[in-house]
Amino acid sequence: MNMRIQIIAIAGSLLIAGFIFELIRKRKLLERYSLLWFGSALVMIVLSIWRGLLDKAAALMGVYYAPSALFIVALGCGVVLFVHFTIVISGLTEQNKLLAQEVGLMREELQWIRQRLAQGGEKIKGMDAGEKRV
């Protein structure tokens, strides 16, 4: 690997790690989501510094040009990050749907209570004793 490419790879990896650290420090990124980023940056730094390991990894992958192997590893780390965030977003979407349904039910129940109160306070007392609206 050319020395210039190695320096660019190390600098790029350090910039990514520093950028992630800064996002955490400013509380724009939660720590639990940053671990994969730091892991990816660490892998990139190790492969950028340790030429022999990158050459062996390239040979294992069947890649002739070692910096291309570094690019493939970075792409693999990106794919892992995308899958992780897709899983997180899917979970949040499901939670959001459940919360919207609960808010809808609570809104309807509040509207029912207001209608009962408008008709007279007597009828609403039964609800305190465990009456549930169907």
Brief descriptors of the model:
mainly alpha; 134 residues
Descriptive notes:
This protein is an all-alpha fold and 134 residues long. The protein has 5 helices and no strands. The chain has helices at 3-25, 31-49, 51-61, 66-119, 122-128. Helix 1 (3-25) packs antiparallel against helix 2, helix 2 runs antiparallel to helix 4 (66-119) and helix 3 (51-61) crosses helix 4.
Summarize the structure.
The chain is mostly helical.
Secondary structure elements and their pairing?
Layout lengths: L2 H23 L5 H19 L1 H11 L4 H54 L2 H7 L6
Number of beta strands: 0
Stretches with pLDDT under 50, minimum 5 residues: none
Question: What gross morphology would you assign?
Answer: elongated
What percent of the residues sit in helical stretches (DSSP H or I)?
A: over 70%
- What is the radius of gyration computed over CA atoms, rounded to a whole number of angstroms? 28 Å
Q: Estimate what percentage of residues fall within beta strands.
A: under 5%
Total helical elements: 5
Structural class by SSE content: mainly alpha
The major sheet is characterized as: none
Cα distance, first to last residue? 72 Å
H-E string: HHHHH
Tell me, rounded to a whole number, the average pLDDT: 87
